[in-house]
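Person: Please work through this fold.
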Amino acid sequence: MTRRRSGHRVPLWVYAVLTVFCAISYFPLYWMFVVATTDSATATRLPPRLVPGDNFLDLAGLVLETVPFVRALVNSFVIATAIGVGQALVCSLAGFAFAKLSFPGRHTLFVIVVLTMTVPLQLAIIPQYMIISRLGWVDTLQGVIVPGFVNAFGIFWMRQHIVATISDELMQAARVDGATTWQVFWRVVFPLVRPGAILLGLFGFVWAWNDFLWPFIVLKSPERYTAQIAIKALQNSRDIDLGLAMSGSFLATLPLLVLFVFVGRRLVGGIMEGAFKG
C-alpha cells in the first residue's frame, strides 16, 4: 500500500491500471519510432517487431533530401506560435467583452458564437478561402495564420474562466482608480487569467502544428510547406514507404515532445496558481 500526502491510502492496483493505460497511450508513438528506425516491412510483420533498429539516421537523411523538411519545420513553428499567441490574446479580449462589458446584443452574439461550435470546420473552408483569395494571401503564411487567431471554443473558454476568476468588485475598484477599459483588461484581468490563456495558447499551438487540411489548401510552393504537408510529399501516388513516412512523422512530432518536456510542469503550476487565485 502507498500513502499520499493527505494520508489516504491508494491501492497498488490503481497504479497498475494507470500504468497499463499509459503504456497503451504511448505505444503508438513508440511503434512509430520502431518503424522509423527499420523499414516498411516492420509495419506488417507478424509477430510484430518491438525493438528499434539502427536505420533512423539513414531514413532521416533521406527525408531531408526528398523534401525541404527543415524549412517545413520552421514554417510550422512560425505558424503554430503565431496562432497560439494570437488565440491567447484575441480570445481573452473577446471573452473579457462577453463576460464583463455591457453592450447591445451581448447575450445573442455569445449564443451565436457557441452555436458555431456545432458547425463542422470543413463547411467554412470555401468562404474562408474566398476571403483570403480576395486579400491576395493564397500561398502565404498569413493566409494560414490569420484565420486561426479566433475560434469559438477559445472565446467560450476564456469567457467562462474570466467569469469564474474576476469579480465585479475588483473591476469597479480599478475603474475608481481611473483605469480605462483597456487598462482594466491588460493590468488587472489578463494577469489573473494568464494560466488559462497559456493553456489555450498551447492547445492552439498543438492544433496548428498538426493541422493538415487548411495549410494544404492555401500553400502551394514547397518552400512554404508545413511539416504535415512535407510528410504527405514523401509519399508518391503509387507506393508508400512507411519507414520514410514514419521517420518524417517522428521528426515532426519531436518538437512537440520537447515542448511538453520544458513547458508541461510550468503549465500545470500556472493552472494551479490561477485556480487558487480564483
